[in-house]
Write a structure and sequence with these properties.
single chain, 184 residues, alpha/beta, Collagenase (Catalytic Domain), 5-stranded mixed β-sheet, 3-stranded mixed β-sheet, 5 helices, 34% helix
Length: 184
């Protein structure tokens, strides 16, 4: 890619949470070697809301964040979302692109009727952020259930996977860095 994507802009959409921003930033720095910058958007674009489902349309929010911000961008969106063909998504990314979004609502223990667990919530958001950024860098889903690139169809699967890239996915990321790609 011609543009320098060594800095990831993390955009909090519809909320402000410094602790959450710090956790995601730290994970991105340590696992992907990217510097981060923060932005805040006070509201989620209403035109991306599907009233019939009471959810946001993930594709619309991903497109919006990509148009609104230049460079490498990760939107953390305080909402529940779906993409056509799926009941919900934890996140979505432009495969090999420059933008990703993570939806926070279903990552909260309270969504499942459990008591709030801040550390579990932060861990889930970090995992899904790294997962979606892995897609941005061209990684697909990994069959290693402990790898952060493992597909999660439920919150149980999010909790079971780790926050690290497996050796195979790590190697692919290192090859991108050595080739002068987005991780340089």
């Amino acid at each position: 890619m011609a543009q320098d994507l060594a800095v990831l802009r993390i955009v909090e959409v519809g909320f402000e949470d410094e602790d959450l921003l710090n956790v995601v930033s730290k994970g991105v720095r340590s696992k992907l070697g990217l510097r981060t910058a923060a932005s805040f958007e006070p509201s989620i674009p209403r035109e991306a809301f599907d009233e019939s489902r009471n959810q946001y349309v993930s594709d619309a929010l991903l497109s919006w964040i990509s148009r609104r911000f230049s460079g490498l961008v990760l939107g953390l969106v305080n909402a529940d979302a779906y993409t056509p063909g799926l009941n919900f998504v934890f996140g979505q990314a432009q495969l090999g692109g420059r933008a990703a979004v993570v939806f926070l609502e279903r990552l909260r223990p309270e969504f499942y009727g459990r008591s709030g667990d801040r550390s579990l919530f932060l861990e889930r958001v970090e995992k899904e952020s790294l997962h979606e950024l892995g897609h941005v860098f061209g990684l697909g889903h990994c069959p290693d259930r402990r790898c952060v690139m493992s597909f999660s169809n439920s919150i149980v699967e999010v909790d079971l996977k780790g926050s690290d890239f497996c050796p195979r996915c790590s190697l692919l990321l290192r090859r991108l860095r050595a080739a002068g790609g987005v991780l340089r």
